[in-house]
Every structure is written in structure tokens, then in C-alpha cells.
Amino acid sequence: MQTARPLVEVVRLGLVSYQEGLRLQQVYTDRHRSGPAHTLLLCQHLPVYTTGIRHKPYPGPVLDRLRLLGADVHHANRGGLITFHGPGQLVCYPVLNLGSFKKSVRWYVGQLEKTVIALCGRFGVEAATSPHTGVWVGDNKICAIGIHCGRYVTSHGLALNCNTDLSWFDHIVPCGIEGKGVTSLSRELQRDVGVEEAVPHLLDAFREQLSCRLTEAETPEPDRNGGVSSA
């Protein structure tokens, strides 16, 4: 008998701070304690530079300089090095129990890469993987990927540049890779491509690559700190 495809709830968070995104990922991760509760969190972040677990702490003056640009700075427990998140970037945090899919982190990261490549293909943009992390158009990264996986429950995910202000990346070496650049759907297509236009294509590609079903969940209520609450 064929096993039913896993059901994943899509939660649209809108524009939230990075800290609020972390809090909500933990909320949805905790739901897996009582059984599979697959969730796909979609959002945009206020300007923030984040560093991953593969890098020693950055010098204080460097972080202070980034903060003076008007961005927050956070250390995250994801893989990867430093990157930027901000408006115009489609951030996708799948909170999945891989036991319902395939218990392989390498497989999972590969499916995220294929999801983004398929999305780009829908726009006529030829994207590919490389020996470096993420998804690339030539020598320019269009999507950063960095995940965390504990007891086969995933968090963090991917960040696709749609109509992001790419000048934010000028102040760092994105993902610690020298001699490479960044790009966006808007830059590649020479027209404005917003997050809202990209979301349906992301969902279709995610459904296909992860062999799952998607259902829309209610957007969490705003909390008192200007974020959103899952209560």
C-alpha cells in the first residue's frame, strides 16, 4: 500500500525581526515532541547580518560597524558563515521531521537546492549548485542555504534574493566565499520581482521536490513586541 505524502502547513509570517523568526521556529520545533507537525514558515526579515556555527566569533569592531549600517547582528545555530537577510528576500524555514521524509541531512539539503533551482527555472533563470553552499547563477549566489537538524527535526533553511537591496552584501564576504558575488531574481530578469510573486513558485517546487502535500495555516497573531505569536 502506498504511504500518504506528508502534510506540511504553510505559515505566512510577513515581515518579522530575525529574533522573532528564531522564537517561532522554536515554537514549531517543540510541536514535534508529540508527533510529526511539519511546518513551512515563510517570511521576510528586517535588516540583519547573521553568522553560522562554522565561524569563530567576529571581532567586536566589525560587528559594531555592521550595526552602524542600521542592521541587527545575530549568531545563529545554523550551518554556514556570515550572510545578510532583509526586505525583498524570501526566507523559508521548513520545520520538518525527516523521519516522515528521508532520514538524511544530505538528501534534505539537496532537495532544498533542487527546490530553488526549479523555482528559478520557472522564471527562466538558469541556476545551479556549486562546490560552495547555496544556489548560484554563474559566480553569483542567488540563494543562501543553512540548516540546523536535531533528532531529525529541521530548522533554519533558505533565503532567496527576490528584489533585495544587494548593497547590504557589499559590507561582508557573503558566506565567507572570496571572489564571488550575489544576485537576485530582479537583477537577472531586469525587472522587479517581489517576494509575493516568488512564493507560489516556491511552494509548487517545494511540494514536488519534497513529495509532500501543503495546506495553508492561519497566520499567528501579532505579539506585544511587534512580532507574531503562535498562540
UniProtKB/TrEMBL annotation:
GO terms for molecular function: lipoyl(octanoyl) transferase activity. SUPFAM superfamilies: Class II aaRS and biotin synthetases. The keyword Chloroplast does not apply. The keyword Mitochondrion applies. Its EC number is 2.3.1.181. It is found in: Mitochondrion. One of its GO terms (biological process) is protein lipoylation. Gene3D superfamilies: Bira Bifunctional Protein, Domain 2. GO terms for cellular component: mitochondrion. InterPro entries: aa-tRNA-synth_II/BPL/LPL, BPL_LPL_catalytic, Octanoyltransferase, Octanoyltransferase_CS. Its main location: mitochondrion. Substrate binds at R78, G79, G80, L81, I82, T83, F84, H85, A144, I145, G146, G157, L158, A159. PROSITE patterns: BPL_LPL_CATALYTIC, LIPB. Residues 34-214 form the BPL/LPL catalytic domain. It catalyses: octanoyl-[ACP] + L-lysyl-[protein] = N(6)-octanoyl-L-lysyl-[protein] + holo-[ACP] + H(+). The active site is at C175. This is Octanoyl-[acyl-carrier-protein]:protein N-octanoyltransferase LIPT2, mitochondrial. The lineage of its organism: Eukaryota, Metazoa, Chordata, Craniata, Vertebrata.
